[in-house]
Amino acid sequence: MPSSFGSALRVSVFGQSHSPAVGCVVEGLPAGLSLDLDELRAFVARRAPGNDPWSTPRREPDEPRIVSGLNVRGETCGAPLAAIIENTNTRSADYDNLTGVPRPGHADFTAWAKWHGAQDVPGGGHFSGRLTGPLCVAGGVALQWLRTRGVTVRAHVAELAGIPDEPLCALDNSPEAAERLSAQMAALADGRRVPVIDEAAGERMVEAVMAARAQKDTVGGIVECVACGLPAGAGSPMFDGIENVMARALFGVPAVKGVEFGRGFEVARLRGTENNDPYEVRDGACVPVTNNAGGILGGITTGAPVLVRCAVKPISSVMVEQDSVDLDRMEPARLKVHGRHDTTAVIRAVPVVEAVCALSLADALLAWPAQ
To answer: How many alpha carbons fall within 13 Å on the CB side of residue 48?
Structure first.
């Protein structure tokens, strides 16, 4: 079961939802980064469960414990960085009725088909969103390293339950748009309960989520992420492009079902004259005036902000009865899910998307310009 990604910066995750701990190993981190552990804990805490009424009641402190990779001064030392997060609040008995009856929409059936019943079922096992905790640990470290290179990454809930937030001002690459984008990113950094730019939209989102929860249902949405400060020229063409690297990693986040860059699928309805980004000379450098490409052409960065969106499906574990199959008897079965589950993954997915984008971009920068 491979659970790794990256090249110059290699990330592996391990553990299951109800195992003693989940964790990560990061290889290739540059030595000498003075890691701010308080900042790292705060970043990981943004994803932690049990903190909101729409979140799972499973409360976990999600305190990351780094077990290797730092020297006595708290700096990265060149060795692989390994960290664990202990699972302290599990209730495996809640999943007893799922051992032979798979949940619709979940990976229960495909895991059974691959491992013939030997898979770990409680909490979704290795398929659980619990594995995004160590991803945030690794990504939080990458975010601190990227900042030393002048790169910032920030995401928000672009849409939830059909309710849109104000979009990031990243499709325009003018100085005026850059100022607006900087203000939006600063607003998202202020610790809002729902990571949105328009707080009124965030309130409507909460109402819609709680309405779905009252109906024992779940909702999906879109997470939009931007990275600013990347130089032009990072990445590779064809199969190792920035889009390839980022998309591969983002599809490793549970519940992500779609990824698009820049104008994304909208380009199918544009003409070339509408979609192309003209160039101009600015401060002695060639820069795109607009950013329909999302900061990437031919798999290589243009110097404009990298803009990516992820479609996040509704949580599969709904609390109403659904049709399934008893895999032992191979006959129809009705299934009602028990246990503790989120009403939406979108809000807690925001720091996860930031983490994965940071890891992918750090990987590309560490390989550049050697490519």
So the answer is: 21
pLDDT 10s digits, 265-311? 999 999 999 999 999 999 999 999 999 999 999 999 999 999 999 99
The model's pTM? 0.93
Rg (CA), the chain: 21
What are the strands of the beta sheet with 221-228, ordered from one edge?
A: 163-164, 152-160, 221-228, 306-312, 256-261
pLDDT score, position 2: 72
The SS3 assignment for 36 reads coil
Cis peptide before 175 (omega within 30 of 0): no
Burial bucket for residue 153 (CB in 10 Å: 0-12, 13-18, 19+): buried
Q: How far, in Å, CA of 255 to CA of 222, rounded?
A: 11
Q: Which residues contact 151 (CB under 8 A, 6 or more apart)?
A: 227, 228, 229, 230, 361, 365
Q: Which amino acid is at 100?
A: G
Tokens matching residue 356: 């994965």
Q: Which residues of the chain have pLDDT under 50?
A: none
| Residue 133 half-sphere exposure toward CB, CA atoms < 13 A | 27
- 318: which 2 tokens? 């709904």
- 189 Cβ contact partners less than 8 Å away, ≥ 6 residues apart: 154
> Can you tell me the distance from the alpha carbon of 20 to that of 90, in angstroms, rounded to the nearest whole number?
9
Per-residue pLDDT of 74-131, as tens digits, reads: 999 999 999 999 887 655 555 555 678 888 988 888 888 888 877 766 556 677 778 8
Burial class (CB in 10 A: 0-12, 13-18, 19+), 370: exposed
| Preceding omega of 134 cis (within 30 degrees of 0) | no
Taking CA 343 as the corner, what is the angle to CA 338 and CA 347, rounded to the nearest 5 degrees?
140
Residue at token pair 């190792």: 240
Encoded amino acid at 206, one letter: V
- Residue 272: helix, strand or coil by DSSP? helix
At a CB cut-off of 8 Å and minimum separation 6, what does 111 contact? 119, 121, 125, 127
Q: Can you tell me which residue has the tokens 């509704």? A: 314
